[in-house]
């Protein structure tokens, strides 16, 4: 049985508003048993955003759009409360689930170094009643469940051979098909009718004329990365778990983002996208902005804003100078560079 709640409020208080130096991400919170959120506060411009914490099968806002929400910023100084910002958002149900909503910048002169209150109020939400405390289990993607059901019932062989740096690895086509639209189209023989990035990469895959040949291998695929990345991608496809660093503790987020885009893994792509934003720094923003963003336009906004906010430091960095010395490798540099002052 469901219960309607007129308002649900989540708030964080932080001392000394003008002394906050680092970006702040709130603990994840929920408005129902399977709907999670996070507040993000950026002290440089006093920006505040609410972002969905994406469940594996979410693509659009969907059920989240049933309730509008109000973001607010207040400040308390010597028992005087100052209402600095308040705005109510109504998000359409077909909005991209990776989109967050809020305000980029608030006039710094409005703050007096008091106690900062940032929060969100959800209006007219509906929750399921429960007579006992519930333990939350992160939902398993429906495609993964169906794939393992088929694996158990049909016991198919590992009929896909991956060539990774000269080594052969074998996996099951039914698992790949359930988890990836790319592989589903390829293995069903409908690849000629699929989206452009599938047909562009069809040369990676070789088809066997008979399933009895070569230990029943039906498909041979050349994997473009090394064995570490391959194992991480396969672990994700089989378990939905992601490792974001390689064996040397170096970030592989960008590589995983590229592969997720290539193989049409929307959940992994969204996770990697937010991770790219979280990992932005002086040393990597140039490569991401001039090397990655031109191919993936949806990354542009937050990356460009980071570049604009930190341009003085970035322009003096070794990474920026390396790009200036190798401009032929970055054909879109002149198109993006004039936008550095965008807010």
From TrEMBL:
Domain of life the protein comes from: Eukaryota
Annotated SMART domains: BTB
Record-linked CDD domains: BACK, BTB_POZ_ZBTB_KLHL-like
One Pfam family from the record: BTB
Domain BTB residues, every copy: 158-246
Protein name as it appears in the record: 15401_t:CDS:1
